[in-house]
Amino acid sequence: MSTSTALHTDRYELTMIDAALRDGTAHRRCLFEVFARRLPGARRYGIVAGTGRLLSLIADLRFGDRELEWLRAERVVSERTLDWLADYRFSGSIDGYREGEVYFPNSPLLTVEASFAEGVLLETLALSVLNFDSAVANAATRMVTAAAGRPLAEMGSRRANEEAAIAASRAAYIAGFGATSNLEAGLRWGVPTMGTAAHAFTLLHDSEEEAFRAQVDALGPSTTLLVDTYDVQKGVETAVRVAGTELGAVRLDSGDLPVLVSEVRQQLDALGARNTKITVTNDLDEFTIAALSPSPVDSFGVGTSLVTGSGSPAASMVYKLVARRDDDSEEWTPVAKASAGKVSRGGRKGAVRRLDAAGKASAEVVRVLGSEPRERAFETRDASERGLIVPLVTDGVADERYLGADGTRAARAHRETAVAELPLGALRLSRGEPVLETILE
Questions:
Q1: What residue ranges in 375-437 does DSSP mark as E strands?
Q2: What is the rounded distance in angstroms from the CA atom of residue 194 to the CA atom of residue 178?
Q3: 221: exposed, middle or buried (Cβ count in 10 Å: 0-12, 13-18, 19+)
Q4: 313 neighbors 40 (Cβ within 8 angstroms)
Q5: So what's the pLDDT on residue 237?
Q6: Mean pLDDT in each 10-residue stretch from start to end of the chain (441 residues)?
Q7: Which of 164, 169, 237, 297 is the most exposed place for a label (fewest CB within 10 A)?
Q8: In 3D, which of 196, 245, 203 has the Cα closest to residue 225?
Q9: Strand pairing of 397-398 and 277-280?
């Protein structure tokens, strides 16, 4: 199998290039922009995720013999276009919000400056990455809020496509989850991994006690024992008898959790296992996590709801041409879609977050820059503003600070800082308006 991402795209991207090469507009300099017209699920803010993955995938966007021969056999494009694709390397520049940044409707999340042909080829790839990863991060950040400082682990690999599972693990980690069950996410992106045993391990043995003894012998008394395969009360009693009062944790994966957690806590304390923690993993979302906040839960494991965006499986981002430049001009001509309900704003944009005297965010300000140079997008006017746009790719070369495991950890740290800057209204889980107004200047 090829590792190329060249055909991770819609056919019309290539047919547009084919036609543009024929009429001479393919090399016209263009600006494309990624933004969201709204926050799905009427949420209060969004989190940008997927940028580091996207930059790596763009670097792998190469048309090899396998891809070119298939395009030729399917007669997707002309021989002239196949020759152009064979030499394709993205040589443009990309600016945008840092991964982990908070965003709002009409935030210019990504700006791609390149020839039309180079830039349009990125559309499907950019949207498939950013829409999915940001949807997971949007759900995850709400769960982190609901958990109120208690650790969360991502456990959704069995509810997602195999590659999507890895991406979801990464996005959840950026949004504040502490670990994942997915080992490839650990290898590829440096996400801490966790996991002990499932019900199958208990059912494999002749008794629950034998299963627990085998697990403790292998992993030590600090392990987490799954105590609800049969009878929870007996399972807790057996777990403490086998591992001792220094048992690390017990896991509950079923039942009436608010009641059950309280009963298990009382039983553990009565058995002398006062330091043994309780983790729950039963079809959780941000609302069930919030409902468990009065209960003595120590940590949460979340699967299906997380990897499906908790009701909003895509972040509603779009990729639009916002400006073009004629071959003999240094001036950008703004262009914009005017369809009902899908109006966009043309031109290159800068963006800042306006802060009050206490350092809390008060507004999202998006400025149309016209034909001003690229560097103006990174500027702020005074100390009351924090710049949101940074250079990600310059002349085809990605900034290494945003790549790999180090880039993933940096995105996680940035999300924590950015969310802490928001007013308290951002933490509401109920449906409502964005917590900050987006002001277009």
A1: 385-387, 389-394, 397-398
A2: 9
A3: middle
A4: no
A5: 98
A6: 82 98 96 96 97 96 96 98 97 98 97 98 98 98 98 96 97 98 98 97 98 98 97 98 98 93 98 98 95 96 97 96 88 85 84 97 96 94 96 98 98 98 96 96 92
A7: 237
A8: 196
A9: unpaired
Which token pair is 153?
A: 């682990």
User: Would you call 182 exposed, middle or buried from its count of C-beta atoms within 10 A (0-12, 13-18, 19+)?
Assistant: buried
Could you tell me which of 301, 307, 260, 264 has the C-alpha nearest to residue 283? 301
Q: Which tokens in the block code for residue 97?
A: 């919000």
Task: Report CA dihedral (225, 230, 232, 235) to the nearest 10 degrees.
Answer: -50
Nearest of 135, 95, 99 to residue 317 by alpha carbon: 135
Q: pTM to 2 decimals?
A: 0.96
How much is the pLDDT for 1? 47
Contact (CB, 8 A) for 98 and 135: no
Q: Quote the crossing angle between the two packed helices 123-147 and 404-420, to the nearest 10°.
A: 50
DSSP annotation of 98 reads: P
SS3 content of the chain, % helix, strand, coil (to 5): 40, 20, 40
Listed in order, strand segments (DSSP E) in 237-316 are 249-252, 277-280, 299-302
